[in-house]
Amino acid sequence: MDFFNKIFRGDRVIWMIFAFLFTVSIIEVYSASSTLTFRTDYWRPIMEHTLFLLVGLGIVLLVHSFKPKFFSIFAVALPFTWFLLIATRLFGTEVNGAFRRFLGFQPSEIAKLCLITCVAFILSRRKNESSEDSAFKWICVSTVITCALIFFDNFSTAGLLYGIIIFMLFIGQISIKKIGFFSLATVFVIALILAFSFKFPDAVKNTPLKRASTWTSRISDYKEKEDIKSGNYVIDDDNYQVSHAKIALAQGGIFGRMPGNSQQRDYLPQAYSDFIFAIIIEELGLVGGIAVLALYVFLFIRAGIIAGRCTKLFPKLLVMGSALMLVAQALANIAVAVDLIPVTGQPLPLVSRGGTSILVTCAFFGIILSVSRYENPRGISREEAIVKEMEAEKQAAEAAENWTGGETGLIADTY
């Protein structure tokens, strides 16, 4: 017990949420990876996923051992991620018409971490109204460059990241007028791009905006849903994933079919990543789905409590930005699985199968735990006090045992 108390520091609730998601991930990815086992060795998919999770656990332990002030290095690394994103566009691997991987990892995931840290750092450095104007300009420039580079190949990630930055500006008490102007200007530009793509779909096919045709088709398919009750519903290439996700949700019932008994995992192409929540409901039922959703809600609530206890602005903004990113991504994945929004391709944080996304998610968890340790007035001092108290009790017990043994020996010698 002493060993675990010394290794797993920080907020215990966050650790419990991490442990539950970690366990759900191994069980459900193992079950949902049936389509992958036909292409390779039976155990390889789950072994690779488990290895990434274990490396991610190591990242959590490493990151949460540093004080939050050291995380400003991620802000300095932001320009480096711009070069990685550009290199991905030029030399990356194209998958389904999008360039998202470069040398085996996704630079957009690293860019998310760096931009959130950069915004938190800039906001924490402002001191007066004039410095607020300068900070806001730097944040706008950093956000626009990062999100624009991600936007061409991953619209959903760019949109989520942009939304998180807007929330951080609000939490950082930037003028509502400035936030509103920045938001409206961005929405106007995005609306123009989508409107042009809808009107002239052939004109964007050979441009950097060629993915716009995919976005518009997904929006159109979502708007033009066929009524299943009419009897005219046909599963085709356009609604294939969504249809089988709905079947998985319907088959789950209240308590599910139990882990390993999913049927739709053999039909959903991304059952182990984008649509893993549908598999969770099919196997664990509505109860299991609500439990997984509750974990992310508790994560956000607990992060808010941790942020409220912070005495410094940088860790407060950093922990809220990290939690917002994790929870917003989870809600996006869940919303797609239950057909509330068009398909986005967002993984379920720490649960979906992946590489870079798991490692970056673990880094976010490590940041939250670090803040809970070092920036909580009752954090590290209380933690150390508990450890010292346990050591003192152990020493007292050993001393009492030695004293009793010595007294017994003395009495025996006397007689």
Descriptive account of the structure:
The protein is mainly alpha-helical. The chain has one domain (2-227, 238-404). Helix content is 70%, strand content 2%. The protein contains 16 helices and two strands. It has helices spanning 2-7, 12-32, 34-37, 44-63, 72-76, 78-91, 107-125, 129-151, 155-171, 176-199, 212-223, 240-252, 276-309, 313-337, 356-374, 380-414; strands at 93-95, 98-101. A two-stranded antiparallel ribbon has the order 1-2. A hairpin with a 2-residue loop joins strand 1 (93-95) and strand 2 (98-101). Helix 6 runs antiparallel to helix 7, helix 7 (107-125) runs parallel beside helix 15 (356-374) and helix 14 runs antiparallel to helix 15. The protein is globular and about 85 Å long. The protein starts with a helix and ends with a helix.
Q: Quick gist of this model?
A:
This protein has 415 residues and is an all-alpha fold. The protein has one domain (2-227, 238-404). The chain is built from 16 helices and two strands.
